[in-house]
Amino acid sequence: MLRKSQVLTVILFLISGTVWGADQQIDKFLTQFCVDCHSGESAPTGFDLTKTSHDLKQPDVLRQWVKLHDQVAANHMPPKEADQPTRAERDTFLDSLDQTLVAAEQQLAQTQPRLRRLTRTEYENTIRDLFDMPGIALSGNLPADGESHGFDKVPEALDISHVNIAKYLEAADHVLDYAIATRPEPPAISTRRISLVNRGGFVAHIVMNGDGVLLKNGQPDPDFPPAGEQNHLDQGAHERWGSFDNGASVGLFRHEDESVSPYFIEHVTIYPARYRVRTSLWSFGWDQGTVLPGRGTEAARLSVVQLTGDGRGGQHPSYVLGYFNAPVGKPLEHEVVVWLNHNELIGFNTASLAPAANYYKKKRAMEFTGPGIVVDWLDIEGPLYDEWPPASHKLLFGNMPLVEFKQEEHPGVTPPDHKRPRQLGAGMNRPDPEPGIWTVHSEDPLADANRLLANALPKLFRRRVSEAVRQQYVDIVQARLDAGDCFELAMRMAYRSAMVSLDFLYHVDDSVPAEPAAKPDDYALACRLSYFLWNSAPDERLVQLAASGELRRPEVLHAEVERMLKHPHAKRFVDDFLGQWLKLYDIAATDPDKKLYPEFSPYLQDCMVAETRAYFQELLEQDLDVSHLLKSDFLMLNQKLATHYGIPDVTGTQVRRVPLPAECPRGGLVTQASILKITANGTTTSPVPRGAFVLDRLLGQPPEPPPSNVSAIEPDVQGATTIRDQLAKHRDNALCASCHQKIDPPGFALEAFDVIGGFRTRYRSIGEGDPAERGAIDPFIGIGFRLGKDVDASGELPDGQTFANVQEFQNIATTNSRPLLENLAQRFIVYSTGQTVRFSDRPALASIVDRTLAQNGGVRTLLHEVIGSPLFTGGLDTAIYEKHDADTPTITGNNIDDQRMLMTATLAAVTSPALRSLAEEQPASPAPDYTYDDEHSLTVRVAGLFMPERAEAFRELIQRFPDVELKSLDAATAEATIQYAAESGTFKNANSDQVIERLNNMVRQVSTGLFSVKPVGELPHDQLQQVEFDIIGLDCKACSLAVHDILLRNNGVIHATASFQDGKAIAWIDPAQTNHAELVTALKKSNVTLKEMAGE
Amino acid sequence: MRFHAALTRTALSRRTFLRASGVALALPLLDAMQPTLADDSLELPRRMVCIETNMGILPRYFFPEGAGRDYIASPYLERLAAHRNQLTVFSGVSLPGVTGGHAAQKCFLTGTPHPERGGFRNGVSLDQLAAEHVGNATRFPSLVLAITNENATLSYTRSGAPIPSEQSPRKLFEKLFVQGRPDEVEARVEALRQGRSTLDFVADQSRRLNKQLSAADQHRLDQYQNAVRELEQRLHAAQEWEYRPKPQVEAKAPEENNDPRQFVERSRMIFDVMKLALETDSTRIISLFIDTTVIHNITHHGNRPEVLAELRGHEERQFDALNGFLTELSESKERNESLLDRTMVLYGTCMGSANSHSNVNLPALLAGGGFRHGQHLAFDTEHNYPLSNLYVSMLQRLGMEVGEFSSGKGTMRGLDFA
């Protein structure tokens, strides 16, 4: 142990390079009350005052002394059992230390940077808003941002390297490619009604196998009976037959999984723009072939999927649009307006159904009884533009006219290189014809450049741009014009430069000065506000208020905050702030064990996130007091969450406010499934991470990290021990106990909830235990877990208060709102300014909290107080609001979204120009009057006449050709005699082989492969041998077609029929080339099942 | 992940800087065949080749007995016996969370978990991350290759988009060694020139702020300016490449071969071109996906001896082809080292047992590239060690300052730099 006199000499603080002698008071106090214990090897928590640095220029050292200050101020130190200072001694010491620390910090402020790069989310939103391209995807291709103090908004964490710059260049080019109009008229609006079961898609495949059914008028489609003992044969035949586009609705039983991703593949976006998407959904019950009323409202998911590669592989949902109600029996129409990027389409999932599959069952759909979701259709309409050229173009080129660029008129000028859209996949929508090169034309390029840049640069840079700077951009334009670029290319170069400049990529503050506490300039204040509440650039109004200096007026600032919170962009604040503060972004970081938590689904996970967002939104809208972070008398639920929480009578996907039932152990953030999942590891829970989460994220008292020599607890799911048993050693070890007596109690209370946020009284186990009851788990989910030991959710807080369960804990924890408010205020400040709250900021922070408490302690009030405080505005001249505005908060309706739960912002409806009608048929041009004669006549063999009534279809088909006439058709032999117009364009100068070839092409194309023709062959029909097959599962016409096709694929088969009415197929064959046995083999190889034949 | 600009702050103007730091620029300085040998002051480059076969490798013939340096080679490793001291074989490794049987094949170089799930989005692949950092030194930042008749690839961008692979050894050869049309070259040069001009401009613009900044903000500004300058230098290097003639090689362009059954022969052909690409320093990063789907049915061998024997035959020939590639690399000399000494060759597969579609205990080995090889690193077959840690080691071996990659949170235990 050191003698006290030794300590005296070391309490000299280093500030700003000079030794700053501390007040004697500090020495005296530490020597008298602290050093006895806090010295030498055995100093508690290793804090040795004789070795502690006093170099307060080091941020870590400063932090350590602040902590010492706080320990003494909170009466935690000296400990109860030690000698206690008097009140006066304590105060004197704290005052002295306070002054020292504040002085030190002012010097240190120099080392806190303020120049901050946009995060990739800010970057993306900024582009989206400035260019009015609200869904353009950019952030995914930018390197991930760092994180500091819990947020990605802190300058030190936002590094930049050449990789970022290269990606910004790419992104700028990508944006400009799509922002600039390249045609005089907008692309034609296409309106298309498409089916979920589509050619070449997954869904056709699984419906063929009995994992879905086609329905017409609420009953199985007679043209496409459900797959029973036999699955349907040959998808291609069904596609050609049109089974999938005969207007039937699609009822699905199967959930998305590794081999099934249902998409509406018949629309693949070509032009990035807004699209209106409408769909009709309902749910039903299926009982082995019979349609019954459903079990209740089901949820269907719509997502946006980006096709990649060649359009076949590599697809994945880019993001979930939302979950939509599918009510029992009665179709419900939903509509959303979404931005779709190039090669994006709409994906689907039967979200509320349990994973189930019928394809492996003997009788497939005819053996299945259970729920299904029906999609009647999906309408997609777009691209929709409010104006043309679009706003993105107008930002860059104003109202300058678009003209066609003709090279001969501009010798030596480089025209723009406009990208031609290439469509991946199997979209039925097609690109518009390319109109040639259209580009803006300028008579006076430099004057126009100056004018355009004067408009665009201040928007891009979110501040006033001096003439000198603008001139430098005009110089770029001039240089490119001199180099031979056309006006568009030259301007593009200037814009591209602007978008990679520091002025665009960083939060620039003209007042960023060398002095520490300078306030942001007015534009920086507008930006601070907009990047806080919208995560994006300020809109025109905010910039105007900044320009006029009005924004700093308290009542203006207050009104603006209110306006911004009501704007749909405010959802970005809620999503991004919660994503980081409460780690909602990490919701998918762990996968619940499938055996222990079979009821978990991606849908439940999205509901969890939606709940927490809606809840926070509700606190904000209703200005509810901050104790709601821990406790509430209402919940924000939809059906899925309510079932999960065991609360009855909540129907549908829409999240709405529900009163908390008596005795329900929920309320506040801490009992929400999202938080409970994020603080567990997917398999087990531990009070430690949960307790630490509550202390750190909600109460602002992050626990110290555990000593490095302590190993983590091995999770046990065998049911033999509980986590409480395992943690018992903490109580016995004083070193552990000093922290764990604080960390563990909130976690103990939350032991009442499992890793997916379900309430429990016993732990689930995959080893020992009793059989588990199903409870609210979907009856189509198998249960493999057992019930193990009892849960004990009681605990004791450091101050000795005890609780028996989570409700009692909530009651104790909410008695003092101050820590909750202080913490939330600090989080707001770090998130909005990128600056931490320093020791010297504490009075300002305390004032925010006091003022909020003096009003109602509400979350919206707190937000206003933060924004009105000098910590946000940076200036002491900003008078803090005198009083909270008397406005009653309005509900913006973001939460209570009827009949659906949106996961992403839906766009406002577009005031699109009058829709062009697609249904109007082009008037047919009059058929030319051809003459026919016997000289131009030949006989062909028709393939596709597999049933007698197909003859009529063939006749109709031939009638559609203006230059061909059918003289005769013998359905029994499939021989047709045809006359053709020799003078027509099709057959001019053709010999008979060429005539048949051309005719065959026409027939195949128009009939989509249902019919084809070929030469009759040499063998007369009566010399052909007739062979028969009895076939199982010949259930529909398309299957008949399939069997017919399989037979005809074999050499020597001249003609074939197959009828689903009698289950028979007949082939007429050339016996020299094939025989019955060979064809049996061929049929079997194509998975056709033949009835057992006698003697075989 | 945090990247450090390789360049230090400097008061030099950009032009001066360019002249002064020609070495750091890694401009193409030298003649075709052995570019780096001509100037002893240049450090020899490091390279990385990543190969995945997608239908598993029979574990019983792959994994050796005994751990450490005295392991007893397995039948397949016998095929590589000549390179025993130049390779490390791993057991008890897998990519954490990468499951889904065949679905895992797209994650071999990304390590992104759960490709089998709806909503899966891949992450950046090892080779592409490496190419961002060392790719500028060569004409081609990386080569993305595949032997497949489908559209498979091992390489993914940061946003998880697949990068199309080159599948024809012949086209690859032409790309590497046959001169492009002058107008195409000119167009690419012009694009690079404009990129550089943009960067010059924005660097100048950022100097407006210099005067009024605090020291801390000055540091942030310097970081931006360095980033801009370094990219400008990279574009400059790329521009130089366009003007330089492509290397001339004596080898003939290989013939086209699209027969999926001949995947071993096709492997040999593409290995030959890969060796030429490395030798001429046309690239330093290659990914190669070898699609062996044609043997898919026999990988479900069900332990039938005749099927196992057939499968073993195919796989032995694959290892013979790999052996041929390693031999070629080791016989190609750069100063006093072999090309293999400077080239990491990762060879592995996404399934520990194709028979059961298991994605744990992946057969994998690393040859060459400057590690202390000659050993069997045996990890726990019950609780696998992350193969992604090997990727961190490989990135560091390339000179990148990274501590993590995907699920890899550190370097591979027991694998040291030579």
Widest sheet, order of strands of chain B:
4-5-1-8-9-2-10
- Considering DSSP H and I runs of 4 or more, what fraction of the residues of chain B is helical? 25-40%
CATH topology of the largest domain in chain B: Alkaline Phosphatase, subunit A
Largest sheet of chain A: 8 strands, antiparallel
- The average pLDDT score of chain B comes to 85
Major sheet attributes of chain B: 7 strands, mixed
Provide the number of structural domains of chain B: 2
The overall strand count of chain B is: 11
- Described by the principal axes of the CA atoms, the overall outline of chain A is flat
Helix content of chain A: 25-40%
| Name of the level-1 CATH class of the largest domain in chain B | Alpha Beta
Helix/sheet category of chain A? alpha+beta
* CATH-level-2 architecture of the largest domain in chain B: 3-Layer(aba) Sandwich
Number of helices of chain A: 32
The protein's oligomeric status is heterodimer
What are the segments of chain B in which pLDDT stays under 50 over at least 5 consecutive residues? 1-37
CATH superfamily of the largest domain in chain B: Alkaline Phosphatase, subunit A
Total of helices of chain B:
12
Could you give the order of the helices and strands of chain B?
Answer: HHEHHEEHEHHHHEHHEEEEEEH
The count of strands of chain A amounts to 34
Outline of the structure:
Chain A is an alpha+beta fold and 1096 residues long.
Which labels suit this protein?
heterodimer; A: about 1100 residues; alpha+beta; Jelly Rolls; 7 domains; 32 helices; B: about 425 residues; alpha/beta; Alkaline Phosphatase, subunit A; 7-stranded mixed sheet; two-stranded parallel sheet; 12 helices; disordered N terminus
